[in-house]
Each structure stands twice: as structure tokens, then as C-alpha cells.
Amino acid sequence: MAESICLVCGYEGKPRKIKRGTRGMEIFIWTVLLIPGPIYSVWRRVGLPRICLNCKMDKMVSINSDAGMIKQQQMDAEMGLILPRAQASVVMSDKSHSVVALPENTTDKRTIDPDVW
Ligand SMILES: [Zn+2]
Predict the structure, then answer these.
(1) CA–CA distance, 60 with 62 (Å, rounded to integer)
(2) In 12, 21, 59, 87, which residue has its Cα 20 to 30 A from 113's Cα atom?
(3) Residues near ligand 1 ion, CB 5 Å cutoff
(4) Interatomic CA distance for residues 44 and 14, integer angstroms
(5) How many whole angstroms separate alpha carbon 28 and alpha carbon 53?
(6) What pLDDT digit, counting tens, does each position of 28-58 carry?
(7) Are strands 12-13 and 4-6 parallel, antiparallel or unpaired?
(8) Ligand 1 center to residue 89 CA distance, Å?
(9) Cα of 59 to ligand 1 centre, how many Å?
(10) Digit-coded pLDDT (tens) for 93-114
(11) Are strands 16-17 and 12-13 parallel, antiparallel or unpaired?
(12) How far is it, in rounded angstroms, from Cα 90 to Cα 63?
């Protein structure tokens, strides 16, 4: 199983899945009512929220998903493991490392005229 990452706190690891309903009710339905037993068992196990072990929120996503990759890069940048994207482009474009220049695409921003809106 692929690892997951929490979108709230950045915890990486396996999420916790909590089943709906109770085991006692499942045993009761299987033994007494019989027919709805399989339906109840499937309902308990399908579509479970993935709970974060750290913050107990159900915002865990796969680390290979787009949201997971973005959160992992954000967490790595916050911890100083990698440079943020804008800062990294400055370092890459500056060969001499003596003068830090702004990225070129920041000057391409067009001004917004409030009258046009
Ligand atoms: Zn969390």
C-alpha cells in the first residue's frame, strides 16, 4: 500500500481506518436476521475515511496524488530540505551567486484595471 500524507499537519504514514457500526450489531444481524448481514458487513468496510494518526482529521491522501505531492513539497520546503519554487528558480538562474535577481516571470504580471471589471 502506498504511503499517505495528511493535508492538515503533513504527517506521512499509514492512515487509520475506523469501521462504521459495531461488531456486536454485525454478529446479531448475521445470526438472527441473516439476509441483511452481508449488506451490513459491506457497508461497514467500504468508503471509510482515512484518519490521520497525528491530528485525527480525515484529510489523508495518497502521497502519489497531486495533492499529496504538493503537500510533501510544501512540508519539505518548510523544513528546509528543499528550496521553495520561486527561490529555487532564482538560484538556478544566477550563475555567479553574487547578485540575487528576481525571477523574470514576476515582471510579466499584467496590471489589473478596476474599470475593466
Ligand atoms: Zn494530520
Answers:
(1) 7
(2) 87
(3) 6, 8-9, 11, 52, 54-55
(4) 20
(5) 31
(6) 999 988 888 999 999 998 888 889 999 988 8
(7) antiparallel
(8) 30
(9) 7
(10) 555 555 555 555 555 667 777 7
(11) unpaired
(12) 28
